[in-house]
Amino acid sequence: MVNRLQGKRTIVPGGSSGIGRAICKLFASEGASLVIADIDNDGGQETLNEVLDDKGTAVFVHTDVSNAAVLKTLYRRLLISWGGLMFL
């Protein structure tokens, strides 16, 4: 790939399986740094391992994306640690 997302930071809700996992792998292959957010610990860890095995940059955060307060807290943490997000 051509690293079209190099230097971009994003959160992928539902990244533990299916389309979410595919998005994680695609974005990582394009150079994006990812936050994989999901309630499925095993699936999230599996996605994380696949991204890292392919030399991508990512973290997995157990997150209930249906809870607005939890998402707000996660965003604040990312703002401090990553300087915010570029896109969702």
Quick structural gist:
The protein has 88 residues and is an alpha/beta fold. The chain has 3 helices and 3 strands.
Describe this protein's structure.
This protein is an alpha/beta fold and 88 residues long. It has a single domain, classed as NAD(P)-binding Rossmann-like Domain (Rossmann fold), CATH 3.40.50.720. It contains three helices and three strands. It has helices spanning 18-29, 41-53, 68-82, and strands at residues 9-13, 33-38, 57-62. Strands 1-2-3 form a three-stranded parallel β-sheet, covered by helices on one side. Strand 1 (9-13), helix 1 and strand 2 form a beta-alpha-beta unit. Helix 1 (18-29) packs parallel to helix 2. The longest helix is centred in the C-terminal third of the chain and has 15 residues, at 68-82. The mean pLDDT is 91.
SSE layout:
Blueprint: E1 9-13, H1 18-29, E2 33-38, H2 41-53, E3 57-62, H3 68-82
Parallel strand pairs: 1-2, 2-3
Helix pairs in contact: 1-2
